[in-house]
């Protein structure tokens, strides 16, 4: 299967100033690839949530995006505390974000929930070293 | 002249500077051979280039006043922002008298359509279930901008005619019933080029009911100089009657950014944000795309800073305009009395009779995944080579756009002054190398060769 790495970018923990930069770049790239606008919207939301997750919860990581004729695959890898209870993390409104993050308007507990909602498949691997989330959006 | 776009270039005035290129929000302009040219399919008639051209080489095509007056039964449509352009003694009545004196058979106020739009929106917003906001369809530039750069958000654009089209539709129906032997032509007094384009290519609609749009800059002086018509016309009297049945005064606020919000908030708890200027609109749309704008019901978006008051064809600066418009509204309220609020019900009834237009989606660009990917790869490779300074000396707004133009065959790599310098350097090196090379027959020092180290 033909697969191409579109984006492989570092995301720093706590770097709210640059929050959304990688997902913006992805959006631009997907538009250049003439993809269907609904797919672009879903991929933008998923990438943005995953990018913000790395910034809020981890000690830094990478956001990678691969594309094949069938799907856009967004992979978020981080090192950090990991997700304690994945099922809980997928519950709308559940959040472990601290007050200062909530004051910034983030950490409403919709992140992974949105990733799940807008992707066609998603898997999460997480331990005390870090987390890998893979989310695929079909064409 | 082609009417696909109102904005056009006066070739002999263009100095080939790249101000318009750099300031175009859709990257629609290139300078080649010292002349700007607009890529039609990207132009949304926002007038950024008209504002930014020091040489006044960009202009807006609008309907000639004499041409508009050449036929019979011409109706002028007055936008709320137009009140703010005129001296304080110009109330609606006086503006109409001036227009009649110029030769129009009648004149009406577009805020009637805005009233219907507002009433209809209140209804929609009260029933809205989706968490995503709706986007106003009043500004044609915004609709075009979304269609071009954010097509995935097109579904959020309110599926309803603009206040201008609503007004024309309504009075056209009424006039045709009353004056069965007459045909009417409708001319909008436009503060911006986009409304002229929308006459010929209305976004999301097959055809407009208007016959043209006269620029505020063209009609301003004639209005000031015109006498006041002493006699009214049958048509004008009839139009006044229709208008009197309408709560049009509060909707005059639509002329400024925030006017929709004022009209919607009156009886509805919807959460509305007003956004003016394409730069800010871009910011909001980017966040909306990421689902990062929560708890908003409605986005009032106007491409010009300040709303229609900021239209590029207007005379008065938009801040003075706000004051003038508010004063005009107070005066009209004094004349209309309390009727304005009572007439809301009339508007609500008329809405029922309105058929809603479909906003037509763009056709999806067909192309294979392989071709698109190959183009993207070529693009990335090209971007890698270019310096990334975005100096625009090549005539494209930035290096990324030049890369696209190169890949698509509209530009060459040496259009970039740095790439050209690199090529020259390579050529110079090769030349000096060649200078040091002797033809094979001469290239051997026989003596040295004899003592050589072989």
From TrEMBL, chain A:
The organism sits in which domain of life? Bacteria
Q: Any keyword Nucleotide-binding?
A: yes
A molecular function annotated in GO for this UniProt entry is: ATP binding
Which InterPro entries does this entry report, sorted A to Z?
HATPase_C_sf, HATPase_dom
Per UniProt, the keywords (alphabetical) are: ATP-binding, Nucleotide-binding
Domain Histidine kinase/HSP90-like ATPase residues, every copy: 46-134
Name of the protein in its database record: ATP-binding protein
| Species this chain originates from | Halonatronomonas betaini
Upper taxonomic classification of the species? Bacteria, Bacillati, Bacillota, Clostridia, Halanaerobiales
